[in-house]
Amino acid sequence: TAGQVITCKAAVCWGAGEPLKVEDIQVAPPEAHEVRIKILYTGRCARICHTDEYTRSGADPEGAFPVILGHEGGGIVESVGEGVDSVKVGDHVIPLYTAECKKCKFCTSGKTNLCSSVRATQGQGLMPDKTSRFSINGKPILHFMGVSTFSQYTVVADVSVVAVNPKAPLEKVCLLGCGITTGWGAVAKQPGVKDSTVAVFGCGCVGLSCLNAAQLVKASRIIAVDTNPAKEEWARKFGATEFVNPKQLPQGTRIQDHLVEITDGGLDFTFDATGNVDVMRAALEACHKGWGVSTIIGVAAAGKEISTRPFQLVTGRVWRGTAFGGVKGRTELPGIVEDYLKGAVKVDEYITHEFKFEDINKGFDAMHAGDCVRAVVDM
Ligand code: NAD
Ligand code: AHE
Ligand code: ZN
What we know:
CATH architecture of the largest domain: Alpha-Beta Complex
Radius of gyration: 20 Å
Number of helices: 10
CATH superfamily of the largest domain: Medium-chain alcohol dehydrogenases, catalytic domain
CATH topology of the largest domain: Quinone Oxidoreductase, Chain A, domain 1
Oligomer: single chain
Helix content: 10-25%
Bound molecules: nicotinamide-adenine-dinucleotide, ligand AHE, zinc ion
Largest sheet: 7 strands, mixed
Order of helices and strands: EEEHEEEHEEEEHHEHEHEHEHEHEHEE
Shape: globular
Distance between the termini: 18 Å
CATH class of the largest domain: Alpha Beta
Structural class: alpha/beta
Number of strands: 18
């Protein structure tokens, strides 16, 4: 198939708010510094949530249509374009929505995992040469987050993919392409969490992964916060030492006030894994005066803004955020896969649902909120 157009199935979103439609699409061969991947598994959350749903719904200011969504996946390299030397045909790979070129100002700064090499075109749904490799009968279909994993074949820039140990089952480690790595990195790469108190707001895949990492790095107290009571059992399984449901506090008690009260002045570290800007505020204000650090992970809808009294920061709390957990995909993801193989990082435990590709839409309508942490779609 190398060098030829491949016709395969992909889930296409034709417009904001529309359900995904499984269509026959054409996937052009990779150009120079591009890689074509046979996607075997893609992760998604089966209910209304997460970043794919955020873009599908029309809430993403960068959303453009028609598009092939999906940003968590695992596959095998089918062919490579000219000049690709970082992966080869047959490699087991995870596509990376946070690229790593190892050359740009960001990559060489030693200060961030963000990379500027392909971010501008990625945001427009295009490959670095400003064209698309996807089409239906000649009509171009856009890429998503530089990866588009809801397709049986996808094309990505060579800076947006990493080879991992082929012994790791792709139907599991596909989830390391986003949710798990994001929560894990947000905590594990944050200095000082050992022996400190931690609160994690939101116990979806991202929040649970924060809890898992907080336990691994030996935080002293790990408080999980979620409005869904069913998440308590999940949270404890992933390392929470306590669980608080903000809805079950006495009338008029704010979650931040409750947390400050039970922690003798506030948490050392808090993490927002909800995407709700009121929760982000609560997470900051639950931090200890003088040193508490709050990390925003959740993605808030277009137009939403965070606020708090500046006094919260004047008195020493720090508000920060992270993308993909601060993890440099090409440099660090293979090691996280090894940690999974050694049993240190949980992955299998997040999978609550498995779907056939034609059923990729299941759950947008049918599922009850809260019963899906992660679904893996067999492509
Ligand atoms: P999810 O929907 O599975 O989980 C969210 C959890 O938050 C649920 O358990 C829900 O009950 C809980 N929740 C909702 N409202 C709450 C409230 N007011 N107080 C406490 N808990 C509340 O989502 P997920 O897949 O875990 O992703 C979480 C967020 O992280 C999303 O916004 C997603 O877009 C974002 N995200 C960001 C990055 C990044 O790189 N920054 C990466 C992945 C995901
Ligand atoms: N287009 C969105 C951006 C949303 C966003 O912040 N995305 C995260 C990843 S979420 C994965 O589930 C991210 O990596 N951000 C850094 C970046 O460069 O996009 C919007 O709101 O505009
Ligand atoms: Zn994601």
